[in-house]
Amino acid sequence: MWYPQGEALCRTKCVLLRVQDWEGVKRMPIIPSGFALIQHELIATPPASLPSGPCLVTYGVELVTGGAQDAADDCAAYFGSFVENVCTADFTLQSTTAKEGPNDVGPVAVSNNQAVGTVSGSAAPPNVAVLVQKRSAFGGKRNRGRFYVPGVPDTQMGPTGLLGSTPLGDIQTAADALLDGIESEGKPMVILHSSGSGTPTPVTSLIVLALLATQRRRIR
C-alpha cells in the first residue's frame, strides 16, 4: 500500500491516521489551541497498475473562524477542486479529517465531501507524484514543508521526468487557488511543528516543482 504524506512528522514513518487512531499516533505534531491538522485521503481506482492503498496529504491550518467540522468541510471543498484540476479520474478524494488542538482534548471531525479528478488521460505510475512545497517567510528546514499528489496524467511527463510548461502552470494555478481559498474561509495554512515552542509557521506560498517526485520507499 502507498502512503505518501506531507508534514514533517510523516517523512520518516508513514501512518494512516484514522479517526480512532489520533490519540495514539506517535510523532504527532504539536497542535496548539486555535489550530488544526488537516488530512486528505485520496484513493485510486484499480487496476493493479495503480496503488491500492490511500495517499494522505496533510497540512496545518489556523482556525480564525469556526472549529474542526468547519475546517474539514472548507478544506475538503477547496482541496477537492485541486484534485479535480490536477488528477485523472483514476483518483478520488475520499474523505477529509480535521484534528483540532490541543492534542489531548481537541475534537476530531470528518468531511465525506468527495471529488474525482477530471484531467483526461491515464495516471502516471504509482511511484510518481507531483511535489508541492510549502514556503514561509522564514528560513530553515523547520519553516518549510511539502506534500505529494498522485494521479498526474502520464502524457504530461517528459522523458526527463519534468512536467510540461502548460500542466505545470495549471497545477500551480490550482495550488494557488487552494491556498487562497482556505484562507478566505478563515483557515490559513500553517506548518505545524513537533518540537520546540510548537508555534505554527504561516505558509505564504505553495510552489509546484517541475521535476516529478518518486516514492520508492513508500510502495507496499
Q: How many runs of DSSP E, i.e. beta strands? A: 11
* Protein structure class: alpha+beta
Overall 3D geometry? globular
Largest pleated sheet: 7 strands, antiparallel
Extract low-pLDDT stretches. Answer: 1-26
Radius of gyration, in angstroms, nearest whole number: 16 Å
Counting H and I runs of at least 4 residues, what is the number of helices? 2
Beta fraction: 25-35%
Helix content: 10-25%
Write the element-wise H/E pattern from the N-terminal end onward.
Answer: EEHEEEEEHEEEE
Compute the average pLDDT.
84
- The domain count comes to 1
What separation lies between the terminal Cα atoms?
4 Å
Provide a compact summary of the structure.
With 220 residues, this protein is α+β, with helices and mostly antiparallel strands.
What does the model show?
Strands 1, 2, 3, 4, 5, 8 and 9 form a 7-stranded antiparallel sheet that branches. Strands 6, 7, 10 and 11 form a 4-stranded antiparallel sheet that branches. The chain has 2 helices and 11 strands, in the order ββαβββββαββββ. The chain has helices at 68-86, 165-184, and strands at 35-44, 55-62, 91-100, 108-111, 115-116, 128-135, 145-149, 189-191, 201-202, 205-208, 213-214. It is α+β, with helices and mostly antiparallel strands and 220 residues long. 18% of the residues lie in helices and 26% in strands. Helix 1 (68-86) packs antiparallel against helix 2 (165-184). 44% of the residues are buried.
